[in-house]
């Protein structure tokens, strides 16, 4: 069952190319909850970004799994999201922000994984906001040129 979630800790924020055909980009954030048991991923809302992906589990499903992960479709989507989040810390993209901050995720979906993936047993994904307005502005600046009318 999905629920809103809040926390404070290390947040990795990065630009993300989520649709190769259209070149659509967004800003994603990755953090953890429950002492690392839960991977938390969220789209940072950017006003005017018509390319924001919305449901991250649906985004994961569009990336077509071959056999990397086992289990139900929802399980496999959760594994893909855990991979994206964990990978954002180990292979940093240009412009990545790594901060200590308060955060909140809403409009979220969760899945309990059948076994640990990338150190996580659960994935929670939705829209993420940071408590610090200045950090939100820095995060939003990671998708210049993607906004409607630009």
Folded structure, characterized:
With 150 residues, the protein is α+β, with helices and mostly antiparallel strands. It has three helices and five strands. It has helices spanning 56-61, 73-90, 133-140; strands at residues 5-19, 24-33, 38-43, 97-117, 120-130. Strands 1-2-3-5-4 form a five-stranded mixed beta barrel. The longest helix has 18 residues, at 73-90.
Brief summary of the model shown:
The chain has helices spanning 56-61, 73-90, 133-140, and strands spanning 5-19, 24-33, 38-43, 97-117, 120-130. A five-stranded mixed beta barrel has the order 1-2-3-5-4. It is an alpha+beta fold.
Mean pLDDT: 85
The helicity comes to 10-25%
Number of helices: 3
Strand order of the largest sheet: 1-2-3-5-4
Shape: globular
Strand percentage, roughly? 35-45%
- Which sequence of SSEs, written as H and E, runs from N to C? EEEHHEEH
* Computed Rg: 14 Å
**Alpha-carbon distance between the termini?**
38 Å
Largest sheet: 5 strands, mixed, barrel
Number of DSSP strands? 5
Which structural class fits the helix and strand makeup?
A: alpha+beta
Query: In terms of quaternary structure, what is this?
Result: single chain
Low-confidence regions: 146-150
């Amino acid at each position: 069952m999905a629920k809103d979630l809040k926390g404070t800790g290390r947040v990795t924020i990065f630009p993300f190319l989520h649709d190769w055909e259209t070149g659509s980009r967004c800003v994603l954030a990755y953090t953890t909850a429950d002492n690392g048991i839960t991977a938390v991923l969220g789209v940072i809302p950017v006003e005017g970004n018509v390319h924001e992906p919305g449901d991250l589990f649906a985004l994961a499903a569009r990336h077509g799994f071959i056999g990397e992960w086992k289990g139900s479709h929802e399980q496999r989507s959760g594994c893909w999201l855990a991979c994206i989040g964990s990978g954002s810390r180990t292979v940093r993209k240009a412009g990545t922000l790594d901060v200590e901050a308060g955060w909140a995720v809403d409009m979220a979906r969760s899945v309990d994984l059948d076994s640990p993936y990338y150190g996580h047993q659960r994935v929670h994904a939705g829209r993420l906001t940071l408590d610090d307005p200045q950090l939100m502005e820095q995060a939003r600046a990671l998708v210049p040129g993607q906004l409607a009318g630009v």
